[in-house]
Amino acid sequence: MDSAELTKWLEELRIEHRDLDEVIHHLISTGHHDTMRVQRLKKRKLKLKDTISKLESQLIPDLDA
Question: pLDDT by residue (tens digit) across 27-36?
């Protein structure tokens, strides 16, 4: 994958992460009774965060010391 593709994928993941955050916040603030659903969404959000971090590190150029 080239840098442009990684950047595009990274932006899509950031949008999904932000959307999940909004959904989780809404479910919690409305007192949603399905705690398993909230936990699954939180787990998915954490996986996205890890993937985003890995992609960001791939975009940083390697520097020879």
Answer: 999 998 899 9
